[in-house]
Design brief:
Elements (H helix, E strand, L loop, with lengths): L2 H15 L1 H19 L6 E5 L5 H10 L4 E6 L2 H14 L4 E5 L11 E7 L8 H10 L1 E12 L6 H10 L22 H10 L3 E10 L2 E3 H11 L2 H5 L4 H15 L3 E2 L2 E3 L2 E9 L1
Parallel strand pairs: 1-2, 1-4, 2-3, 4-5
Antiparallel strand pairs: 5-10, 6-10, 7-9, 8-9
Helix pairs in contact: 1-4, 2-3, 6-10, 8-10
The protein binds S-adenosylmethionine (SAM).
Length: 272
């Protein structure tokens, strides 16, 4: 298992547990991605790093029963959940595969590739995006959302800063390495896509204000984010101190129980 596969094997189980919350707050991002892909009924679309399938489902409503919406992901737990949800919804033309998008081969070309936060984790992004370009027909469309830099997303930095005094190694995000903020630099994204053979690359800010509660904010901070693995081996007392410090740091971002979980992203489009 590669490092990333091992990482997502664990993190994928957290995303399964928090599927309802993540889908609720990131719904505007899925909508923006699918809109940008300009999908038509009867088309075939691939959702990369599909997780539990929210963007695949949003795409499938556009491609319809005559089309194909295929989600691929390296997390077995998330693919299993996506398949279960597809079965429950009875949505036609949808399928999910456990596959590494960097190397997977696809029998028939897609009209479009979409992704909500699923393309920043490739160890060799140029090779991965070249592989994805081979998966679309000539002129096929790419549309994905990725995060802008942590400083533009202060709610991701505040919990790490609050927890730092209690951790032996303070956590920090890396902007140019595979990971959540790996595509924060738009020049890097443009370079990667161009080297991989994509054309007509456009990168535009996508800002969404996601309404949530204080509990949502805490869950995202200590359960979904990088504090979760960092606290795994930490004793109960110290963990409680971290939770209290994070709660105190986040309190100013909540008013009457409501928090605005703003997301500063890039919406990236290109043509194959
Ligand atoms: C931040 S999550 C986003 C999941 C989903 N798109 C969503 O928005 O709910 C990133 C996803 O990318 C998947 N992923 C990471 N590297 C991958 C790869 N090489 N091939 C396929 N999926 C990958 C992870 O397993 C994870 O489900």
């Amino acid at each position: 298992m590669t490092d990333m596969a091992a990482y997502w094997d664990r993190a994928g189980r957290v995303w399964v547990e928090q599927q309802a919350l993540l889908d609720r707050i990131y719904a505007p991002v899925a909508r923006a991605v699918v809109e940008a892909a300009d999908l038509r009924a009867g088309q075939a679309v691939l959702d990369v790093g599909c997780g539990s399938g929210a963007t695949t489902f949003a795409a499938a409503w556009r491609t319809g029963p005559e089309g194909r919406a295929i989600g691929v992901d390296i997390s077995p737990a998330l693919v299993e959940l996506a398949r279960r949800r597809a079965g429950e919804d009875g949505l036609e033309g949808v399928a999910f595969e456990l596959a590494d998008a960097q190397t997977a081969t696809f029998a028939t070309p897609f009209d479009a590739i979409v992704s909500r936060f699923g393309v920043m984790f490739f160890p060799d992004p140029v090779a991965a995006f070249a592989n994805l370009r081979r998966a679309v027909r000539p002129g096929g469309r790419l549309a994905f959302a990725c995060w802008r830099k942590p400083e533009d997303n202060p709610l991701s930095l505040i919990p790490l800063a609050a927890a730092a005094p209690f951790l032996s190694t303070p956590l920090k995000y890396e902007n140019d390495a595979p990971g959540r903020f790996g595509f924060a630099d738009p020049d890097r994204v443009r370079r990667i896509l161009a080297e991989a053979g994509w054309r007509k690359i456009e990168i535009a800010p996508l800002d969404t204000a996601m309404p949530g509660t204080f509990e949502d904010l805490m869950t995202l901070s200590v359960r979904v984010g990088p504090l979760n693995p960092a606290l795994a081996g930490v004793d109960e007392a110290r963990r409680a101190k971290v939770h209290a410090a994070v709660a105190e740091a986040l309190a100013p971002y909540v008013e009457n129980g409501a928090a605005s979980l703003d997301a500063a992203c890039w919406l990236v489009t290109a043509e194959g």
